[in-house]
Amino acid sequence: MRFHINAGVLWSLPTSSAAPLDESGTDWRAVRNAGFVGLQHYFPEPAAIEAGLEMSGMARITDPEEARPIAMQHKAWGFVCSTWRVGTGFESDAEMDAPARATLDASSDSGLPVYIETHRATMTQDMRRTTDLCSRSPDLKFNADLSHWYTGAEMRYGDFEAKLAALAPVFERTRFMHGRIGHSCTMQLPLEQARDHECWEDYRAMWRLCLEGFANANENEPTVFAPETLPASVDFQGTTHRINYATLHEGEEVGDRWRDALAMLEVMDALNAEREGTRSND
Question: How far apart are CA 277 and CA 282, in angstroms?
Answer without folding.
Answer: 9
